[in-house]
Structures are given as C-alpha cells and as structure tokens.
Amino acid sequence: MALSLEEIQNLNRQFKGIPPEEIISWAIGHGKKSVVTTNFRPYEVAILHAVTEVNKSTPVIWCDTGYNTPNTYKHAEELISRLGLNVKLYVPKQTSAHRDAVMGIPQIDDPRHKEFTEQVKLEPFRRAMEEHQPDVWFTNLRKGQTTHRDSLDVLSLSKDGVLKVSPFYHWSDTQLDAYLNTHKLPNEHKYFDPTKVLENRECGLHT
C-alpha cells in the first residue's frame, strides 16, 4: 500500500478520534498483507483484541527475547488461548543460557549492549518481517511513551517503507483501562525488556 507522506498526514488528521476498529478495518481493506507485532507487555492485549476482532487470522509476530518474566509468559499463554491468536514465534539463534554464560545482559553503557540488542531483538524481528513481507504493520505505539514515538502518529512509515498503524496512538492509560474493563481483558504489568533498561528508551524496532 503505497501512500505519500502528504496522504499519511491527511489520513492522520482524519483518524484522530476515530475508533480503533475502524482504523484497523481501513488498513486491512487497503493493504495486501497485515501483521501485528507484540511482546505481551502491559496493554498489548488491547491491540491484539482489536485486530483479531476485525481479522482473526492476522499473523501475530512474537519476538521472544528469552528474558521475559514468568508473569509475561503466563499472560501470553492466556491471551493466545483466549483470543485464538495466530502466533508466529521468533526467538534468538542463541539460547539465553548460552548468552548468559558468555555475555550476560550488558549495561546500557557497555559496548556489548548493541550486539546484545541485535541478537535478542533486532535479528529475530528482521527475520520475521522478511518471511511475512507485510505492507501493513499493526503496533500499540502510543504518544508519550518515548521522545521518538511523540514524533509519530496513528499512521507512520517504517524505515523499510511498511505502513505502521497504531490505532491507540492518542489513548491514555486511563482510556485503555476502560477498554480492557469493557471487554473483560486481562493486563499484566510485571514485564522486563532487557534491551531497554529504562522505560523511556527505544529498543530499536521503531527507529
């Protein structure tokens, strides 16, 4: 789905305040192949529920770093079963046990942190996108999460030209809590991302 930056800007103005399911329906209808990515972090259930309500068969790409908390893995299994997610699992080529023995989890100022992020997140993600070749990528990016994400919108283009669609971009935690309550969806806050360290850092997928 080739859209110019001007067309994307115009659509973003139109989509502000539009229900997520309408945005998702528009994107699926105008694209050729859609995927949704998730790491089952807090509030990810919202985008998973919204997308699968429109199209149950949408591939759900889960790049599991291998360092998730037990709570996250249990939460993931619950959502996969409850929502009938079409999960496509991608993991690093090296086990976390092997990596722990030779590298561990490098601190942010450690030169090895870049290699660590490449191994556990960026390479599996590239592999997933290369295999699926989507032209529409659903995410749960929201304004206020990071400085970079504040520069995006409901629609944006990835560095590879894939249309990123973030239907909940303008939503607050309070609004999402209400959405989860309305649809009786579980949430899980005990989440750990070994590549970010700080909550307001980018992990590299969206830059």
UniProtKB/TrEMBL annotation:
Pathway: Sulfur metabolism; hydrogen sulfide biosynthesis; sulfite from sulfate
Database matches in SUPFAM superfamilies: Adenine nucleotide alpha hydrolases-like (SSF52402)
Record domain Phosphoadenosine phosphosulphate reductase: where: 35-187
Leader sequence segment: none
Gene Ontology cellular-component annotations: cytoplasm
GO biological process: sulfate assimilation, phosphoadenylyl sulfate reduction by phosphoadenylyl-sulfate reductase (thioredoxin)
Family in the record: Belongs to the PAPS reductase family. CysH subfamily.
Protein name per its UniProtKB record: Phosphoadenylylsulfate reductase
UniProt source species: Flagellimonas olearia
